[in-house]
Amino acid sequence: MYETLKKYCQQFVHLSESELQLIDKFFETKTVNKKEFLLKENTICNFLAFIEKGSIRFFHTKDGIEKTCDLAFENAWVTDFQSFSNGTVCKMNLQALEESQLFFITKPNLLKLYESCPKYETFGRLMAEKVAQRATGIAMSLSADKPEERFENLIDSQPDLFQRIPQKYIANFLGISPESLSRIRNRIFHKQKS
Questions:
Q1: Which residues pair with 67 in a beta bridge?
Q2: pLDDT of residue 194
Q3: From CA 141, how far away is CA 149, in angstroms rounded?
């Protein structure tokens, strides 16, 4: 049932068959419909979720305006780490942009999993490091790269992006207007054709 997650875990830590079976015990599957919220700001996040299929948008609201911080796809972990780790109210919203299949674990079950098999603690640390590296990469790109470079990097990492995600969220994530995104997209596609 959790074969995708088991294969993913095996890439980072060697787990025996009995250790892999712990995933069946502590995780649950969850389907989130398009536009449905997995997490809303001003609540406490008590879960981690692995995206088997679909996409999740991370955003917060400032002065009534939504600010997209990240777009997560298959084989990514989603949570509000600050809220999850500290038990504080979250500032982030997690919303499905298409119907999404998730493997979901609550914080109490995660702690039981760590207790049952310390290798999962190692795996958890490695995943937290990957998330931190991604967040650093996004922050550096926003501060140093031109919008066109950010767009090209995003398309390289997710070629089917425009078939899956509304353009307004892509533009918001890149820190530009939808009109600027259209101009950049047209320039790049014209360059590729010539």
A1: 60
A2: 64
A3: 8
Where is 71: in which H helix or E strand?
strand 65-72
Indicate the pTM of the whole model. Answer: 0.88
- Can you tell me the distance from the alpha carbon of 54 to that of 72, in angstroms, rounded to the nearest whole number? 8
Supply 35's token pair. 């536009």
**What is the architecture of the domain spanning 3-119?**
Sandwich (2.60)
Do residues 59 and 98 make contact, with C-beta atoms less than 8 angstroms apart?
A: no
Residue owning tokens 């509304």: 166
Average pLDDT of every residue of the chain: 90
94, 57 Cβ separation under 8 angstroms = yes
Using CA atoms, how far apart are residues 173 and 68, in angstroms rounded to an integer? 5
Q: What are the boundaries of each domain within the chain?
A: 3-119
Angle at 136 between CA 130 and CA 140, to 5 degrees: 145
Q: Please, how many CA atoms are within 13 Å of residue 77, restricted to the half-sphere of its CB? A: 22
Q: How many residues are listed for the chain in this entry?
A: 194
**Tell me: the pLDDT tens digits for 138-151?**
877 777 888 888 88
On whether the CB atoms of residues 89 and 44 are closer than 8 A, the answer is yes
pLDDT tens digit sequence for 108-136: 999 999 999 999 999 999 988 888 888 88
Cα–Cα dist 170/57, whole Å:
10
